[in-house]
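sorry for the late reply, my laptop died twice this morning and i had to redo everyting from scratch. anyway the thing you sent over, i finally got around to it. pasting the sequence first so we're on the same page, its 69 residues, then the predicted structure underneath. double check i copied it right bc i was rushing
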Amino acid sequence: MPPVITAVDTKVRLDIFGADHAFGPSSKDLLRRGIAEGQLVACAVVWAEVGAFFPTPMAAREALQRLGV
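ok and here's the structure:
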């Protein structure tokens, strides 16, 4: 079976980066599942939206890379 490619929306990533109490744990589990089944991708809009959450573009890039994006 070929690996699965999972595109993850901005909100899921911000649930994790912002330590959202309601959705953070389930978002983290979903990302782990996506990594285990294949790879994660993010479109340019997601990169821009997530990037606005961080103080610098490099900080955003490092955080997304830690998630396997």
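Residues 24-37 form the longest helix (14 residues).
thats about all i looked at so far, will dig more tmrw
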